[in-house]
Every structure is written in C-alpha cells, then in structure tokens.
C-alpha cells in the first residue's frame, strides 16, 4: 500500500462520520465482520481488514485468529459473524473450505456480501446460489479503492440488521467458553427428563474412566492424523511419550504406528525404530502414489492421510515439535532408476509457526549418502507454498501449482540441488534429477 493511499484512507469517513476506532460498529460487540477469501486474494483481504479496523469495525480474518482445530475455528468464526464478506473468484469457487464457510453462512441466514476480485468471472453452482441477488462490490472495476470501500461500508455492512442466529457461546473470536448445553430447556421445560439424562451421563462417564487409555487408542485409529492447535501446551503428565524417541527408550524397537503426546492431545504417528538408532517420528511418507499430495493450504496445515500409510503430519504439528527443542531431520528415499537407495540428514531442523507461514529457520549441518545433494539448503528461510497460497519468489508462475504439491519453494527452476518430496508422484516427485518411488521425512530429538 502506497503512502498516498495510506493518507487517503486515514481521512476517509463512513456515512459522513469520523472513524471511531475505540468502539466496534457492530451493534453486538460479541460479533464481527467475517472475511472469507481464497489465498490468492489475501493481499486485498488484508487491505480491507486493515481499513475496516481503522474505522472501528470488529473483523475476523483467519491469518489473525485461525489457531485451533481448523474446522472448529471456521464454525466459530461464521457463527459469531453478523455479516460475511465473500471474495468471489474461480479459486474461491473451487475451494472446499471456502464452500463450507459460504454454505454455513447461508444456512444460518447470516447476510453475505460478495466482493468481486476476478474480472469478468461469473459465479456458478453453490457460489451463484449464495451470492445471487446480493449487492456486490467490484474491486476489479477500475474505481479507486477508497470509493469502493466507502460503498461497502455504507451500503452493505452498516445496513445489516443483526440476524437472529443461535449462538451457543459468548466470547471474542480467539476464545469461546461454552454455555452449558440444555440449560434453558431444563429450566423451562422437562426438568425430570433432563435429570434422568444427567444421571445416565454420570453412569456412562463412570464406566468410561476405567477404559480411558484403551479408548485413546481406538479414537486415534479412527482419526490417525488428529488436527491440533499449534499453540497447545504439552501434556502435563511427563510420563506420557512425547515422541517416537520416548517409545524407543522405553523398549519399543519395532517400527509401526504409535500414540504420542507432543501437545495435550494424543497423536497417531508412524515411528521408525530401526534406521540409524531408531526413535524417528515420521512427518511425511510416500511409497505407492495412492494419496494425492496436490492439496490446499489448510490441508497442509492440519495434515492428511493415514499414519499407517502415505501421509503428511501437518505443518502445525511439525512446527510445534521442531520448536520445542533441537530436532534432527532424516530423509530416506528410493530412486525410480535401479531402485537405488539414498538418505540425507540435517543436524537441526526448525519450522516456524503460522506467523512465518511455516518458514524453515534452521537445517544445521548436512550429511548424506554418496551423490545425495544438500537439497534442503535451498529451502532454508523459505515460506511454505501451496497451489492456493503462493509464497515462492517466482514471478512467472505458481511453483506449487506447476509442481502439483506443497513445498518450501524458492523458485520453480529445478536444479540438481533441489527437491520436491510432495510433488506429483509419477512426474514431480524427485530429488535433484532423480525421480523417486518412495520417501520418508522423519525427526527426532537430538542428543549430545
């Protein structure tokens, strides 16, 4: 944003009034304006957010508040909105998570305001349904940002009446404390039934306590790559295994799926207990191409696949685990030609949090099998990129889109010292000039 634009925005008034940054403009200060957008529109989304906040609106945008389980936070953000700004584009229409947000807002009858970000694009299918007939604001029209922004506030946001949506909690966007379920119903209707239900729940809880640890294993099998908050605190019980290394030192020397507690919730991971002294927690695993790695940003954040098969652990967890102490990284791979095996090892591996867009901040020293290039060197201090969030330095194309997988791309020029371990399995899955048939990225706490 230019200094001239800043100056103009500072003097902008809405509905002829001066900005009132001290008070939110929503009539209920528990609610907010929600910005629902695809990552290709992030620059405009951030600019609109900044200007709305400058003029006193309470705004929810994922880059500030998306810190919990992604889908829980998405639900929370929509329910606490009194209006949702939808950034209309082809990429938005194709995004499953954007569909969830827009559809939920429509189901709850929360007013939707379309923001057009792609010139001449005509929404179809669900996007056409939720935006049809709504007053829209076209930021591709050639009009100044200030004039369109003023119309957005005066004609759409300020004119919205607070909807009568069932909100089961009261809090700020980043934290909510649940209201006891059924309180109003019990006090006004069938108290006897509620009492019976309460007693039944007590009996179930009592029976469940004894089988708690057995239940954890069953629950984890149902959801092996549990989505967790990257800011969650570690388990309070220090006896719980925090990594595959803890299982190994306790005598578990067979590779397979184990439960660990790097945070307060149980996580299912694959442990390599054989190679190079064992104790390795696998964060990426590919061996047959059965799992599609060409996925959006939110999938790479939360993780996908099964711990017992091909999978990606998730950037939130990788960041948490590599930031809690010195971790070393090992990559084992098999080349497609002659099934040649290779490995690479880095003495320190640290991935930053969401605020850095999961940049690699340390790789330490490199060692590897003969002929293996130092391929992570090119990824150092580089943000993670996906097809819907481009963070590479290539001006002509989106590397994650062209390589068909999320990675720490600096540019799309694929030289002998680069790697793309998440690219398309039969085409872009490679290290240097060698196409691969399998890879495992794994970490463990460094000793000594």
TrEMBL record:
Residues 1-29 are annotated as: Disordered. Pfam families: Fibrinogen_C, TIR_2. Keywords: Membrane, Transmembrane, Transmembrane helix. Residues 1-15 have a biased composition (Low complexity). Residues 16-26 have a biased composition (Polar residues). This is Fibrinogen C-terminal domain-containing protein. InterPro entries: Fibrinogen-like_C, Fibrinogen_a/b/g_C_1, Fibrinogen_a/b/g_C_dom, Fibrinogen_C-term_domain, TIR_dom, Toll_tir_struct_dom_sf. The chain crosses the membrane at residues 193-215. The lineage of its organism: Eukaryota, Metazoa, Chordata, Tunicata, Ascidiacea. PROSITE patterns: FIBRINOGEN_C_2. SUPFAM superfamilies: Fibrinogen C-terminal domain-like, Toll/Interleukin receptor TIR domain. Residues 235-447 form the Fibrinogen C-terminal domain.
